[in-house]
Amino acid sequence: MVAHYQEVMERVHFTLEYLFKASPAILYQFLTDPPCLIRWFCDEVDINVDVYTFKWGKSEESAYVVDDFEEELFRLHWESADADEEHLEFKIFTSDVTDETILHISDYCDRGEEEDQQRYWDALMTRLRAVCGG
User: Fold this and answer.
1) In terms of residue numbers, what domain contains 43?
2) Torsion of CA 7, 65, 52, 45, to 10 degrees
């Protein structure tokens, strides 16, 4: 008898917040519009109804839209996610104090990869600020 074991990595939820000078309308456009997404997030993106297919080099990943409230919330569920509650969520709101736009990101990663994911999102947000006007 041969036993096969597959290590199951524990997934952890994390949130990040970034400040932007761009308006919520502009930021929302860069989170949802294919020509804008390819400027900071992926190499290509196709939308078929409520399914976004993102391409990075030779790899691709599809996600379906769970929630979409213009200029406020955009939530995707990756088709490859093991758990139904796993999502990539972007919440957009304006600070009452500074009047800056705040992008709140909610995502999941394997335990132990939290720092790598934060660096990844930090780099993406640097690119996003550069293309959307801050």
Assistant:
1) 21-132
2) -110
Q: Which helix (H) or strand (E) holds 119?
A: helix 114-132
Assess if residue 88 is contained within a domain: yes
- pLDDT tens string 20-68: 999 999 999 999 999 999 999 999 999 999 999 999 999 999 999 999 9
d(CA 38, CA 67): 21
Rounded to two decimals, what is the model's pTM?
0.87
Q: Does residue 64 contact residue 53 with C-beta atoms inside 8 Å?
A: no
Longest dimension (CA), the chain: 66
Count of domains observed in the chain: 1
